[in-house]
Structures are given as C-alpha cells and as structure tokens.
Amino acid sequence: MAGNTEPLSPRARLAVTAGRAAAAVSRAAGRGSGSVIGGKVALRLDPDLLAQVAHHLDVILVSATNGKTTTTRLIAEALRANGGVVSNALGANMPAGITSALAGGSDAQYGVIEVDEKYLATVARDVTPKAIALLNLSRDQLDRAAETRILAERWREGLSGSKAVVIANADDPLVVWAASSSPNVVWVAAGQEWKDDAWSCPACGGVMQRPGDDWFCAECGFRRPTPSWALSGDQVLDPHGSAWPIKLQLPGRANKANATTSAAVAAAFGVPPQVALERMHAVTAVAGRYDVVTYLERELRLLLAKNPAGWLETFSLIDAPPAPVILSVNARGADGTDTSWLWDVDYSRLAGHPICVIGDRKLDLAVRLEVAGVDFEVFESAEEAVRACPPGRIEAIANYTAFQDLRRVVGN
C-alpha cells in the first residue's frame, strides 16, 4: 500500500506551480499537452521534485522498445479496481514528462509510469518503484538509442539490488539477462515474434539456440527461465494453472501479450486476473493508436509502428488484401534521423495490398518497397493518398511524428 502523503516542501510546491503555468502556456499556444515543458521547468526549479511527487505512491514502471504505452494503459485500468491511479497516459516517458504526470496525482494510490528505455535506471532510482514491467528490447532510433546489448546492460546494472518485483518477458533473451540481476522476478511467457536482435547470447556472446519456443546458449548455459504466467491463444495462464479469457478490444497478438504482462503486474497488487482482464476490455484506443476515424468518406484505422519489430507486429493485424494501406515515415528528432532500419522490415508481407506512400521520407520508403517487389504509389499528402483509395476501410501505418501528423490531418 502507498505511504501517507507528506506535504511537498515550499520549493517543490513552487516548482509544481511554475510547471503547471508553463504547461498551460504551451497548450494555449497549440504546442501540445505541455507536459514535457512543464516538467522541465519544474525540475529546473527543484531537481529532486520527481522523488518528492512519487514518495506517497505505489509506483509501477513499464519499459520496452515496443508496447509500453499500451501496457501502461492496461495496467492502469486494472489497478483502478483497487484505487486511484495517476499515469503518463499520453506517452511523455522521460523524466520531465513523468514528473508532470506524477505531480497531478496527489490523491492517487498508484503511479503507473511508462519509461523510455534509456531512462529506466535513472527514474527507478528516483521513484523507488514497487514493480517494474520489462517487455522487450529491439533496435530503435539508431542515431539516438544505444545498441540493444548496451541498453540491456544498463537495465541489468540499474536493477541489481532493486527491491521492486520485476515482471519480465521470459521469451526475450535480452530482457531475461537484464532482469536476472534482480532478486525478485516474475517470468511471463509473452512471446517474441521479432528475434533478429537476440541471436547472440547477451551473457557471453555465443550463438543462441532457438528450438521451438525455447532458447538457450550452448556455450555458457544461459537459458530461458520457466515462466509462471503465460499467454496461451486467447487466454492467460496464471501461476496456479488456471486459464482466464483475454477480453480486449485492441487488435493483434502483441496486445494479448501486453494484457498477459499487465495481469501479472495487477496480481502483484492483489487484483485477480479475472477482474484485471475484464477491466482491460474498456480500452479501445491508446493515445490515438487503433482508433478508426472517418475522413473523406473512408474509415481510417490509425496504427503506430516505429521500428522493425513494431512493423512486423502491425503487419500481422491489418485486414487482408485487397485492403488499402497507407505508409508514412518521417525522420525527425523524435523518430530518429537514421532510416536504415527500413531495410530490416519485411515489406513483402504487404504483397497484394494497394499501397500509398507519404511522409517526409517517402522516397526512402519507396526505394525499400521497390526492392521488396511490392506495388505502391507515392503521394504528396495524406489527403491525396486517401482520395486515391476506394471507399471502405484503410489501414494507415506510420512512425511516431508521421502518426501525429496523420492524426492532425484526419482530426483525431
């Protein structure tokens, strides 16, 4: 349970007030939610503010390359069965955004916080989490983020000696290696479709063996741990062997995996799997992801995919051909400016779909699709692309800033 709420220091109160004022100015200027600039202003005035606004909360941190925003939302919904929750629901997942989110949760019991992979150890040190959920690690933003093995090592060092219960994906060798330094780990068989970042052993560098769903290193003996929770088809298997139906409105196998991890986290706080999974059914979209919007008399489903692993999962859930697909890729600061990752995505999976290409880096994507041998057409704008599609549903897949651009155009 959360501790008693202690009043913030005068300096902390001043920092919170100044941060809220900066956020309000940002919103009024049409520059977004203001959570990041508000947090930056507040932390400038009180560098210890994050620890202060978190001290009365049972904090749950969620980190991964893919799925952390959705999993954060699912955990938050599940824990509301027990008490109030504050969360960075819009995905501002660095210290400034996290500080802004927690500063608004003075009456909450739980803080469910998505954390950028690079900042997990730093944030965990400041907020003393009760639980940490680790989903996956794969290549992402190659010009900004560290190589996956280095990120795993940072996680491993940061988790060493942590008192938090770590709920970790037993199917990702990088996550297992990172989490193994923690004394209290709950292993979840959540699956791993993308394996191209985990063919070498993170412990010794040897070649990983992957028979079926198992994995192990023949050289040093590092191997997949036995999970206590598992995703099995449309059900979650709990540590007692009971099967609970997953009731999601969100599409795809990846979200069933997110729900499985979320159920394991909720159980650590006393929420039964049946209750947790039923509450998750209320989630229909996450920060615009999976929303279906009407635009120019078509129905657009908005899908976010930021890296090879995310694109692979997204291809598995879109409607079958001949459903038209709009692909949009930018390479701005928030996306990472290196688009070489496009060559790691198997775009041949889109064969048979009419494909429309837009975005700042549409020509980079067009070259990749040409090599993949799939038919496509390049357009200057989302409006042009949508008008070129027949009436009915369109699958729109975009990376981070391209996704935000698309949401603005279609009024979502």
Quick structural overview:
With 412 residues, the protein is of the alpha/beta class. The chain is built from 14 helices and 17 strands.
Report on the architecture of this protein:
The structure is a single chain. The chain is of the alpha/beta class. The protein has a nine-stranded mixed beta sheet with strand order 2-3-1-4-5-6-9-10-11, sandwiched between helices. Strands 12-13-17-14-15-16 form a six-stranded mixed beta sheet, with helices on both faces. It has helices at 10-28, 35-45, 49-54, 68-79, 95-103, 120-127, 148-159, 173-179, 253-268, 273-280, 308-315, 362-372, 382-387, 400-410; strands at 58-63, 85-87, 110-114, 131-134, 165-169, 185-189, 208-209, 216-217, 229-232, 235-237, 243-245, 292-295, 298-304, 325-328, 355-358, 377-378, 392-398. Helix content is 35%, strand content 17%. It is globular, with a radius of gyration of 21 Å. The protein is built from 14 helices and 17 strands.
Keywords, separated by commas or semicolons:
alpha/beta; 9-stranded mixed sheet; 6-stranded mixed sheet; 14 helices; 35% helix; globular
Helix-strand blueprint:
Blueprint: H1 10-28, H2 35-45, H3 49-54, E1 58-63, H4 68-79, E2 85-87, H5 95-103, E3 110-114, H6 120-127, E4 131-134, H7 148-159, E5 165-169, H8 173-179, E6 185-189, E7 208-209, E8 216-217, E9 229-232, E10 235-237, E11 243-245, H9 253-268, H10 273-280, E12 292-295, E13 298-304, H11 308-315, E14 325-328, E15 355-358, H12 362-372, E16 377-378, H13 382-387, E17 392-398, H14 400-410
Parallel strand pairs: 1-3, 1-4, 2-3, 4-5, 5-6, 6-9, 13-17, 14-15, 14-17, 15-16
Antiparallel strand pairs: 7-8, 9-10, 10-11, 12-13
